[in-house]
Design brief:
Layout: E1 3-7, E2 10-13, E3 18-25, E4 34-39, E5 46-51, E6 57-59, E7 67-72, E8 77-82, E9 91-98, E10 110-113, E11 117-122
Parallel strand pairs: 2-11
Antiparallel strand pairs: 1-3, 3-8, 4-5, 4-9, 5-6, 7-8, 9-10, 9-11
């Protein structure tokens, strides 16, 4: 059974940093595209960072230069390092796994999802 479990969310002041983790169970995730999404109240789910199976990355324009996606194969864990956080980054953050080697930041392409971890950025 495939399970994705996020952690690392919390409340941080604007300008601060957080690192989100996504532990992956029951899935050879390094063979597939993985991504982080976020959803704020009243807004659609937004893709923020993508890690293709070949190691290439892609980011939403709103987070380029501030967020970094990475993985630790030994720990079966995906990460999202978030720096220079802004109030508009506040949202529930989700880890997602696709069923293909390559994907885009389109939610419909992802087969497995974690329950999410809340990030709140205060001024």
């Amino acid at each position: 059974q495939v399970q994705l479990v996020e952690s690392g969310g919390g409340t941080v002041q604007a300008g601060g940093s957080l690192r989100l983790s996504c532990a992956v169970f029951g899935y050879a995730y390094t063979s597939y595209a993985m991504a982080w999404f976020r959803q704020a109240p009243g807004k659609e789910r937004e893709g923020v960072a993508l890690l293709q199976s070949d190691g290439r990355t892609n980011y939403a324009d709103s987070v380029k230069g501030r967020f970094a996606i990475s993985q630790d194969n030994a720990k079966n864990t995906l990460y999202l390092q978030m720096d220079s956080l802004k109030r508009e980054d506040s949202a529930m953050y989700y880890c997602a796994a696709s069923a293909g080697y390559y994907a885009s930041l389109w939610a419909d392409e992802y087969k497995y999802w974690g329950p999410g971890t809340q990030v709140t950025v205060s001024s």
